[in-house]
Amino acid sequence: MTNPNYSKQQIEKILAEERFAYHRVNLPYGLHTRGRDRRRTRDLIFPQSLAGKSVLDVGSALGYFCFEAETRGATRVLGIERDVERFRQACLLKQIIGSRVEFLQRDILQHSLDEKFDYVCLLNVLHHLDDPIHAIHLLAPLAREVLIIEFPTIEDAKFCKTTRIRFPKHYNRLPLMGVSSRKATSKKTDGGQTFVFTPPALIRILQDHQPLFREVEIIDSPVRGRKIALCRK
Ligand SMILES: C[S@@+](CC[C@H](N)C(=O)[O-])C[C@H]1O[C@@H](n2cnc3c(N)ncnc32)[C@H](O)[C@@H]1O
Question: Which atom of ligand 1 is nearest to the CA of 190?
């Protein structure tokens, strides 16, 4: 991967100046941003080929999943990010990569979209929202094939820290919602949490309260205490 508009030295200078802390994003000349390696999640949620598909990533942060969807052949990729700084950095990375991904800086709860996508991703965002169920109801109709939700359960480390209780594992088999805390539990955390869900609770919201999806498959997330719901139309 090379981009004639940026030399290796120019990209190294940008990497030294910017604090790209969130995602490890692949850049030209074998370079990458510092940040968490999300390849395992990518391989769980995306097929090898996304040729011709459209992908919406809500809460796209630095855009890792958008760029990877494009690499796998998606022809229309949109990342929505509320945070101004993360949005700015995603746009800078887009230029460096020479990507055609579109990024919008907006709050998904304030401005809905009138476009449908084959894949809609909502990864590790639900527990930051004041109204997560409203967000699911907004996003479900936008997904043509699948809505992918990565979410913390009551086994999530941060949730356990705020409750000071380690819930027995089998509680995750009950349809429960946990009310988490907005207070950060360490200097590193980004604004705390709102709600966590057990898998059966989320399934009830997705299929019982309203028949939003034909099938919901819950798989383990590579992040401990989290799950991934693959919600198929
Ligand atoms: C924990 S990060 C997850 C980032 C990425 N989806 C991932 O899994 O690697 C949550 C992201 O969602 C963004 N976010 C939170 N609420 C949002 C909203 N209402 N609309 C758009 N983005 C939002 C945050 O700014 C943050 O970048």
Answer: 1
| C-alpha radius of gyration, the chain, whole number | 18
What does the pLDDT read at residue 166? Answer: 83
DSSP-assigned letter for residue 161: H
Q: Cα 186–148–182 angle (5° rounding)?
A: 25
| Ligand 1 center to 4 CA (angstroms) | 31
Which one of 86, 128, 133, 226 would you pick to mutate in the ligand 1 pocket, going by the greatest count of ligand atoms within 8 A of its CB? 128
Q: Domain coordinates of the chain in residue numbers?
A: 8-232
Cα distance between residue 52 and residue 62, in whole Å: 23
**Distance, CA of 7 to chain centre:** 30
For the purposes of burial, counting CB atoms within 10 Å of the CB of 137, is it exposed (0-12), middle (13-18) or buried (19 or more)? middle
Domain 8-232 maps to which CATH number in 3.40.50.720, 3.20.20.70, 1.20.58.100, 3.40.50.150? 3.40.50.150
202: pLDDT strictly greater than 60: yes
Atom in ligand 1 nearest the alpha carbon of residue 110: 19
Q: Model pTM?
A: 0.95
Per-residue DSSP letter, 206: I
pLDDT digits (tens, 9 = 90+) for 13-38: 999 999 898 899 999 999 999 999 99
